[in-house]
Specification:
By secondary structure, this protein is α/β, with parallel strands linked by helices. It has helices spanning 13-23, 41-50, 60-67, 98-106, 115-129, 151-159, 182-189, 225-235, 289-304; strands spanning 3-8, 28-31, 53-56, 75-78, 90-91, 109-111, 140-146, 171-172, 196-202, 208-215, 242-244, 268-274, 278-285. Helix 1 (13-23) packs across helix 9 (289-304). The radius of gyration is 19 Å and the shape is globular.
Amino acid sequence: MKTKVFIDGSAGTTGLRIVERMSGRADVELLTLPEEKRKDFDARVEMMNASDVTFLCLPDDAAKEIAAAAGETVRLIDASTAHRTAPGWQYGFPELSEEFREGIVSGNRVAVPGCHASGMVAILYPMVKAGILPPDYPVTIFSLTGYSGGGKKMIAEYETDGRPLTFEAPRAYGLNQNHKHLPEVTKVAGLAYPPCFTPVVSDYYAGMAVAAQFQGRLLRKTMTPEGLHAFFSEYYAGQELLSVAPFGAEAEEKGYLSGSLKEGWDGMELYITGNPDRLMVTAVFDNLGKGASGAAVQCFNLMTGMPETYGLSL
């Protein structure tokens, strides 16, 4: 029997990618609304409640509004920020632990992690859980992303003739230190305080590199880069969508890590670099893949009993 799927917000960047991934699947019956009904709330609610699984690819307020109208039998996968810290919602990052994975498999309300947040929690959660990183550690993170992470509006700004010259260089933002991904990172990773976080958008379409820096003297356990590499390799062993690059693999890129290195790929790869005094862990992935639609489809696969990587690009 096919799973009936409705994608609310199918015209957005994430929604379009999910539509592409779902359209050719033999296990899915895709429910759609005529164009004139696409923004009709009652029609959307009716279609959502006729589905087995609905993806919410909406602004936060719209996602909250329609989720409140969902029946108990429909399963929701929310790609917005709206429910990532909400009670009763599972956090859609199965690689973190068996508890996270089982929550997705059995849950009917799943929140897909934010793109920057995906890289951050992949690094921070295991270190806090293992007692390497104190919960009150003053975490500092930089994240380089392509402009598609800003959705249709930012894509249009970057791809329009006559754009400002400043768009040709990387631009830091979130300067007030209130980025919308920080609450989920703080909660999920088990931190006492939000990280100091600098996201940077650059003039390329997709892909990101999220880098966390650590002072070796402030860690609870003495770590070398080689030791930290061994730790992450063991922690994520056997995962199909999250791997650790061989130690020293950055040499293949002459010591550089490009934000676009994993564009078009739905997994995530960690690089461990630095020295015993100052260590760095960098998560490299596609903000439209493991950072958005790819992660949503991964959650869908787990929720419906399909192979975890079905329909994904690896």
